[in-house]
Amino acid sequence: MKNEYDYLVGYSRVDITPTESVPLGGYGSTLKRMSRVIRDRIYASCIAITDRSDNTIILISMDLVNTNVKIVEAARENIEKMFGVSQNNIMIASTHTHASVDTFADYPAVEKYNEDMGSKLLPAAAAIALADRRKAKLYMGDTFTDHLNFIRHYKAIPTDGREPFYFGDNHIDGKLDDDLVAHHSEHASKIYEKLHLLKFERELGKDLLLCNWRAHATLCSGLKVYDLSADFIGDTRKIVEDKTDCYFTFFQGAAGNVNPKSRIKSEERALDSVSYSMLLSDYILDAAKNMEYVKPAEIKVLRRMHEADINHTKDHLRDKAKAVSDFYKQSGDRKTANQMAKEIGLFSVYEANAVVGHAAAPLTSLIEMNVITLGDLAMITAPNELFDCLSEYVESKAPFKKVLTLGYCNGKKGYIPSRAAYEYGCYEADIGLYAPGTLEGVADAFLEMLNEIK
């Protein structure tokens, strides 16, 4: 390595709050929620990292519910064209706040928003971060949170004759039967709550903190709430930056089955975002106390397109499911639509929507998987809502001291539940695009890539 520094690291934050009312993502596009109030502004945060051999990676985290591949493709192309950074070295993720722009909505303002994100806003973020690069050293740490989250949408089957229910929905309404759930299955209570923290200590300018953790950002986005917000992630960012004088960036992890705990009714839950972020911030600040220095190394990036099987087991219900789906789109009557779905053997109208979509899908789908390494640190990315057991499994077997999972990255490919989730039943498995065993296959593929790049 020819240069006399560990890394050059730069940071930027660009305001990506829409200038007009837009459809909000989360809870299904059929809800047709339009933003009315800006609770807090949303941003795209960008980190540019260059090693001693002049290899550069760009990591972008957007306060959006999903990562539209059109934004990713346009931004990658423009950033490479403008600044010479390889598209393979550009990772663009969303924090998955459900109180943000639905970038897949068929709406003129959203189409313009997506175009601006790919051609202007994200390239601008990259330009500022690249110009801001300063000599820096890398440190890493972690901690375990304690009961901040719960496994969402587990399908509880009571033994007293009551109808099966998704306990995640009951939890939100304050009706969760903790004893029933805790004793029904280990999958209802076993959760991986490890929080990873990176610190880039710079010679000039503010230091940077990068937090990688997992929990759906749903506290500010109940079904009757129309506020646009970064959710608890924005609240956490304010607290951490105030207490550390560092820039703070959040990358959502394998959060496909994980929600933050709340027993506040949906229209009041934004209040819980503040208290929740205070608890989370305490853990982040605790992790920041014991950081381990990472010796500098050449940045390495490895990409694979992983072929996964689509779940076509319910294709025979396509026509009946379409009738349910069409009824809901026309009437908006979710209660009746859910009952219609149950009558044909499906759990909800959302599963009916999924059955229709899966029947029209090909037999397989390609998943973009990336591995990025900086010495003893590795990051893995996928465009999916991965179940948290993937992180636990990969981290325990990988030949690196630390492995961060960046979910919702470089596109949107939906849930990848664990094989166990298909067995015990949950919303994510009911509507998931992939066949059982996909998560385990992806996990093993990541391990192969980590061993190869090592």
Task: Please describe the topology of this protein.
Layout: E1 7-15, E2 37-38, E3 43-50, E4 56-62, H1 69-83, E5 90-94, H2 108-131, E6 134-144, E7 149-151, E8 155-156, E9 165-166, H3 167-172, H4 178-184, E10 194-202, E11 208-213, E12 227-228, H5 232-244, E13 247-252, E14 258-260, H6 270-287, E15 292-294, E16 299-309, H7 318-331, H8 334-343, H9 349-359, E17 364-374, E18 377-381, E19 385-386, H10 389-397, E20 402-406, E21 415-416, H11 419-424, H12 427-431, H13 438-453
Parallel strand pairs: 2-12, 4-5, 11-13, 18-20, 19-21
Antiparallel strand pairs: 1-3, 1-6, 3-4, 6-10, 6-15, 7-14, 8-9, 10-11, 16-17, 17-18
Helix pairs in contact: 1-2, 5-6, 7-8, 7-9, 8-9, 10-13
Explain briefly what this protein structure is.
With 454 residues, the chain is α/β, with parallel strands linked by helices.
